[in-house]
Design a protein that fits this description.
- The chain has twelve helices and eleven strands.
- It is of the alpha/beta class.
- The two termini are 22 Å apart.
- The mean pLDDT is 84.
- The protein binds zinc ion.
- Zinc ion (ZN) is lined by residues 67, 71, 113, 156, 164.
């Protein structure tokens, strides 16, 4: 997730904080200090409300972190790599590198998070019982964390993919049908339907009751679930279409090559204006020199195009990102996406054999 920085490293996992977390942290502290605490605990000073509000919101995010750590640590214990955990405005997300290999693993890795939140809720209810009726900051913090952790457990169990409940649902369908792609489709459609349902409920609440802000939050959460579910469906489609295919199946071959000594104007007139390709291989005889793209050309002022040479503006062969013809197409797509490229040069035995366009 971009826009985040590393806070700390725990159990070999990078814990990152997204900038949107600051916004929600302030919102939680403010709503606790300004509304929830004064309504339930009378007679404290304003400073006490704020200090307790800030401590409670820090502890809330510690609880969210424990929830995410439970997913990540269980996944790691089963041999999966965890890239990191990012805390953001809607809670946290564990970046587990690959999909579970078995339905049972997916089931437990998803369920352990809500179980961890439930356990935290029970612990805080127990602590609350000790200090109940004291009207003390400790009572307020324990009560808030008891309620919020049980709420987190319940919310995450909504069977809307990508929430934990949706993953649990997916693993159950996977177990029953034996097909992970059917399970993915089922879970992401359920996620979309529930996402739209939550949006509808939010609009209804916002328009018909005085809970305008709560309604708006529901619309927002519903929209988040819906878009995450539909993007996971798209990924699944790409995965299904690309599975088993190689770079050689999709690359362009027999593309004209440009000489490094050609001017930028010649490249425009004799190549780009004729076949409208985005990128060309640059070669001198059989020797691969580099790659030149339309965006390289656009960086040259129109008046300069007759005086500048392809060799000046191209990406040199040593810096061009390449791929082999036998590499899986899905891997090539990931490479294109992660390096933010539009094409890869396909190289076999040191010689360019084609271009793979995004
Ligand atoms: Zn979770």
């Amino acid at each position: 997730m971009s826009g985040s920085f590393r806070l700390v490293r725990l159990f070999g996992i990078d814990i990152r904080l997204h900038f949107s977390w600051v916004f929600i942290f302030l919102l939680v502290a403010w709503s606790l200090a300004g509304a929830y605490l004064p309504a339930n605990y009378r007679g404290w000073t304003v400073n006490t409300y704020w200090v307790v509000g800030i401590i409670a919101s820090i502890l809330l995010f510690a609880c969210v972190l424990i929830h995410e750590l439970s997913h990540s640590l269980l996944a790691m214990s089963r041999g999966y790599k965890v890239r990191g955990i990012t805390l953001f405005f809607l809670g946290g997300v564990s970046e587990i590198e690959e999909e579970a290999a078995q339905a049972g693993e997916e089931f437990w890795i998803a369920l352990v998070g809500p179980l961890a939140s439930l356990a935290l809720g029970i612990i805080f209810w127990g602590l609350l019982a000790i200090v109940a009726g004291t009207n003390s900051p400790l009572e307020a913090i324990f009560q808030y964390l008891a309620i919020i952790n049980v709420a987190l457990a319940i919310f995450n169990l909504i069977p809307a993919f990508p929430l934990d409940g949706g993953r649990v649902l997916k693993s159950i369908v996977w177990k029953i049908t034996g097909s992970v792609s059917k399970a993915n489709t089922f879970a992401s459609i359920t996620g979309s339907v529930l996402g739209f349902g939550i949006i509808g409920l939010g609009v209804f609440l916002a328009l018909t009751t005085r809970n305008f802000i709560s309604g708006l939050w529901l619309v927002f959460i519903g929209w988040f679930i819906q878009s995450a579910a539909s993007s996971s469906r798209q990924q699944q489609t790409v995965h299904t279409n690309l599975a088993g295919r190689r770079v050689a199946d999709a690359m362009q071959v027999n593309r004209p090559t440009v000489e490094p000594g050609a001017t930028v104007q010649q490249l425009l007139d004799q190549f780009i204006a004729k076949d409208f390709q985005r990128a060309y291989l640059v070669a001198l005889g059989d020797s691969f020199q580099g790659l030149v793209t339309v965006s390289d050309v656009l960086k040259v002022a129109p008046d300069d195009r007759v005086n500048r040479y392809v060799t000046e503006i191209m990406t040199r062969a040593s810096e061009v990102v390449t791929v082999g013809p036998d590499a899986p197409l899905e891997e090539a797509l990931q490479l294109l996406a992660s390096r933010d490229l539009n094409q890869l040069v396909v190289i076999a035995n040191g010689v360019p054999v084609g271009l793979l366009a995004r």
